[in-house]
Structure prediction request, 161 residues.
Amino acid sequence: MSRFRFCPRCATALEEIIDHEGRNRKKCPACGYVHYDNPTPVLAAIVEHEGHVILARNKGWPEDWYGLVTGFLEKDEEPAEGILREVHEELGLHGEIVSFVGLHTFRRMNQVLMTWHVRAAGEIVIGDELAGIKRILPEKVKPWPMGTGRALKVWLDQRQG
Prediction:
């Protein structure tokens, strides 16, 4: 359940309820606001650059953690435009979408991941959110069992036919 504790309308402490569908929710006893805690849409890119997959390490992550380029969908933004924006912000690269890889849930983070294969060109310039990158040949990439790793596995399986 979310860490959301106070009503955004009137600042009253929210109470846990079970709604008519049996789902846990938080509701304001004062004004009736219901916090649904729906998943957040997140964009992800399997970035292919000069024959390599680019994995990124965000600032604050452990030294050995790398993942796909990801970011949040912005208001009034088309998802495909958003992932190209993220690739440019995080890697300084101009990309083109090759294919949509898939839609996956990342329950631990309460996110829905939309993942694309993006072919990118240019010189990599690491953005402010990243601590580093890894360049790995596609046949050497090892998908991880959760989050964006599931989409990476789908893409690798598709490549192998």
Observations:
- The mean pLDDT is 95.
- The beta strands are 15-18, 24-27, 34-35, 40-49, 52-58, 69-72, 94-106, 111-121, 130-136.
- The chain has two helices and nine strands.
- The radius of gyration is 19 Å.
